Sequence to fold (112 residues):
Amino acid sequence: MTLLQTSTFLPVCGARRLTPDRGVAALVDGTPVAIFRLSTGELHAVDNIDPISGASVLSRGLVGDVDGRPTVASPLYKQRFDLRTGECLDAAASIRVHDVREADGMVHVRVT
Fold:
């Protein structure tokens, strides 16, 4: 299967539906995405599939911080992923980071 970049931002949900430091799962242009609003207000969107387990669970992960880097820890094996870069801090793996923005009270994501 080839994943293509969506050329436009697609609306996903109302911005008020996002709880700080908790994830929301969405299917964006056929791609499982996890969306997070941090307590700082920053928005992040990453792949929802944990590359270690293969399960679509990162939206249920624990949001944290490692040396100033916002992270999400997989609820299965606890590997931590940098929400800005997708880099796994605990194993040789990574996840894709997607473009995300808020406009007119809606969260929009562009799969990259």
